[in-house]
Amino acid sequence: MSQSPPPCPVFLFSMDSDQFWAAPTTTGGLKAYYQRYGCNTEHYHIELLHFRDSEAVTEWRNTAQASVLTQIHAALNAGQRPIIGFSMYTWNAAEFLSLIHAIKSGCPDVLCIAGGPHVQQAEDYLFDDPIDLIILGEGESSFQEILDAPLNNSWASIKGLAFLRNDELIKTGGRERRTQLDELPSALDVIDLSDAEGNPLYDSVSYETSRGCPFKCAFCEWGTGAIGTKMHQFSMARVRSDWRRIVDAGIKDIWLADSNFGALKEDLEKAQLICELKAETGLPNSFATSWSKKHSPRVQEIVLLLHRNGLLPHYQLALQTLTPLALELSNRKNMGANKYEPIAKQMASAGVPIAAELIWGLPGDNLPEFEKNLDQLLRTFPNLNIFAYTLLPGTEFYEKREEYQIETIPVAGYGKAKGEYVVACHTFGRDQGIEGYFLITAHILFAHGHLLPLSIRYLALQGNITTAPLLRNLLRAVCLEYQSELSDIDLSDRMVVYENRARLYTAMLQNPDRLYDLLKQLVLSYLSAEHCSELQANITNILELDAALSPRVGEPSETEYHFNFDAVSSKTALDCLSLPCTEDFLHNSQTLKIKSPGGIGVILKDPDGGGWLRGEIANACTEIQAVRIMHPNVKPQINA
């Protein structure tokens, strides 16, 4: 009696973005769905191959790829059609395209399926890369039907697919979006969250409580037809069950993949649930999401609830641009400044880590308008997250690149695999576009990297100083100063500086005294040139405070600093987006201990997380709270 062959192998690949180690819920969801609804579950063995980062992919190719190829060959020899599937996002597309070419060159008959936001413009991949099938839109049902009918003569009857037939692109009819999300089994049914000793296998879980986005932003793929505009959500019973499993496994963080958290009335109940779990178990440590584009009373209630329970790493208002034409072309309408400015200042006064998002490079924008917007938001928000616009497949701007005369250059040399930097369009030229990248690099380093956050805010709050020229001057001088330490990269090339900002950041912090001597000289010279010499004495004090609180290399430390002004009062005012008082600078001698966590270049290697490793004033909580209440330039806190 002949022995039946082993189950046909199906390998599903996924990879996290840098510094984000989460359970593979996307590919796990596909496996769980097939195990519940597939017709031939005993015929397949589905294995999840999940990588922490690109280095893990390289290690796998060196150590384990040969074993997978052996399994694929064995299945082919047994008359089966083994499958490789890839969950494609901007951060993993280059690695996965390379991996696809390697596997298909060794096993050309393996069926290769790709899905995810990055490949929704299927024609850009099917003609150039050895991908057999691309799933368009939601993937669970399409994946199940492919496995139950893997031969290509059945693909035309499956909705939501793109493939080539006789070198002709075929796109089947669109798949209707699923409205009853509880029909989808939980990915956690098939993913091990902890090891045999009960230790968590992942740092976090990316979890969606809803699908869809009501907005159709032209730069974003979220609200397009592939995912849909109407929002649908999982039941609270489902969310409660899954979140309980996550915290019981000891996983530190729950980060939502929702598009507009706070927009649905049930989102308040979800926030209450996460706070209950925190109070009961101590987990999660933090809770992050993409927030509702509208700051409603419900959103405010959720933000304050999470903040009170120590769960809010940041709350971001996704403004993206303030330029009227850019807003119009992006299909967006922000809340008025008269609404978000008091919200931002009140939340900052309450200690809520509120931030605004801004994008450079959107069609309709230009550098002078962007610089004006930057100054306005520096005066309004304690933190800004500024992103370079990367043209993504499947978006409206991608479709209209010729109409808007969009010029791009490849991201890090990868081209379509990593996306395309927009460097020019019909409203700004190439030199202006690249200068914008240089400007946001300066902001990322000096403000977001927590090198000069208080000094930049102090100058922006003056109202008569444009910070953009100063930021660019600082960055140009730094590039000259540190070129010899980074001789393998050309710091005279502005895009090279943008792409290598992490290396520049860690190089600068090797010797803080050298760095801040240079920055002080440049800031004072700039104020003199701008006929603002009356600010030089005060900014010298603020620069000393920035230097004391900046991230550091090495081990954690506690250092005593002496200031010739009221550093605590000045910092509190600036934290609350107010100018320090005249009295704050009247030779109030003050000695403070600053605790630094250290870790730059080891724990953190880029400026994007500089604020996480900043120094903190030790044993000054009571004094700071008193100042927060009594400081004449700090407005009352928002009602909590």
Automatic annotation (TrEMBL):
Gene3D superfamilies: Cobalamin-binding domain, tm_1862 like domain. Transmembrane segments: none annotated. Residues 7-157 form the B12-binding domain. It comes from the Bacteria. Signal peptide: none annotated. Keywords: Iron, Iron-sulfur, Metal-binding, S-adenosyl-L-methionine. Its cofactor is [4Fe-4S] cluster. Residues 199-431 form the Radical SAM core domain. The keyword Phosphoprotein does not apply. PANTHER family: ANAEROBIC MAGNESIUM-PROTOPORPHYRIN IX MONOMETHYL ESTER CYCLASE-RELATED, SLR0320 PROTEIN. This is Radical SAM protein. It comes from Zhongshania guokunii.
